[in-house]
């Protein structure tokens, strides 16, 4: 039998096919030493104040994005009632996920499980915002102010950059990367919860 570390995304989806979607499962990334080159790269990745405005190579891509945005807006309405906040959140999720090379639906699954889409969520160990980013990251790769982690784009930027970092560290192993993100590396419960949540946000425009 393959070890949990060897589970790929397809197998995780199969394992979670009948699993209930978790409401909130806020965890905590563990602070680990970063070599200077990695710290510099991560710092550069989060320091860009450009607004999250998606760019498209043609009208077909733009239309697909608008279709996705409309569908996701409806799905998110009960969780985030304010229309302007939903639009800002969704456009930023799209932008930051694509920027980090992550699947948009995966990032939405992480947000659902980590914070239940609560912008000002704080876990019992101090993780903050939509993607429950630990304050030590602001010190390691930010400007040192953990308060910025309640800003929508900043929180999503940090969360996506951190998850991409963990994906790279785990050689693309989503199971292990998600566990590392949650501070529960090697345990199945959190990755399964995220993959179950991810199904809620699938859309043809993301195919």
Write the layout of secondary structure elements.
Blueprint lengths: L8 H7 L20 H11 L12 H18 L6 H18 L3 H12 L20 H6 L10 H18 L4 H9 L6 H10 L9
Describe the fold and architecture.
The structure is a single chain. The protein has 207 residues and is mainly alpha-helical. The longest helix is centred in the first third of the chain and has 18 residues.
Nutshell version of this structure?
This protein is an all-alpha fold and 207 residues long. Helices cover 53% and strands 0% of the residues.
- Radius of gyration over all CA atoms, rounded: 16 Å
CATH class: Mainly Alpha
State the domain count: 1
Number of strands: 0
Q: Give the topology string: H per helix, E per strand.
A: HHHHHHHHH
- Average the pLDDT over all residues and give the rounded result: 86
Tell me roughly what share of residues is in helical segments: 40-55%
* Share in β-strands: under 5%
Largest β-sheet summary: none
Task: Please tell me what the overall shape is.
Answer: globular
CATH topology title? Lysozyme
> Structural class of the secondary elements?
mainly alpha
The second-level CATH architecture is Orthogonal Bundle
What is the number of helices? 9
How widely separated are the two ends? 31 Å
Low-confidence stretches: 1-23
